[in-house]
Amino acid sequence: MPTTLASIKKSLEDRLGSPIMLTAQTGRKRQTERKGVLTETYPSVFVVDLDPDENSFERVSYSYSDVLTRTVEIEFLTEAV
């Protein structure tokens, strides 16, 4: 991933609508993986609509600083056609 907040925001804006896998650090040696679609970007946060079959809630948002500090890791998924 890019190394500045502006470049992280720009790279996410370029991939709106893409399926992604998020790996979030939730505590000491704990991680949460979520699969969804990148739907919106705002000045400070981005929003992901989650897969309803795998998650109990519909949307989640993270800040760009979470990506910069590697609290959240993003992997873009490619769909086989």
Short account of what is shown:
The protein is of the alpha+beta class. It contains two helices and five strands, in the order H-E-E-E-E-H-E.
CATH class: Mainly Beta
| CATH topology name | SH3 type barrels
Strand order of the largest sheet: 4-3-2-1-5
End-to-end separation in angstroms reads: 26 Å
CATH architecture: Roll
Proportion of strand residues: over 45%
Succession of helices and strands: HEEEEHE
Our count of helices gives 2
Portion of residues in helices? Answer: 10-25%
Radius of gyration, in Å, reads: 12 Å
Q: How many domains, in number, for the residues?
A: 1
Q: Assign the structural class, choosing from mainly alpha, mainly beta, alpha/beta, alpha+beta, or little secondary structure.
A: alpha+beta
Major sheet: size, sense and barrel closure? Answer: 5 strands, antiparallel
Instruction: Let me know the average pLDDT.
Output: 88
Low-confidence stretches: none
Q: What key attributes describe this structure?
A:
single chain, alpha+beta, SH3 type barrels, five-stranded antiparallel beta sheet, 2 helices
Explain this structure to me?
- The chain is an alpha+beta fold.
- The protein has one domain: SH3 type barrels.
- It is 17% helix and 46% strand.
- A five-stranded antiparallel beta sheet has the order 4-3-2-1-5.
- The longest helix is centred in the N-terminal third of the chain and has 9 residues, at 5-13.
- The radius of gyration is 12 Å and the shape is globular.
- 14% of the residues are buried.
- The mean pLDDT is 88.
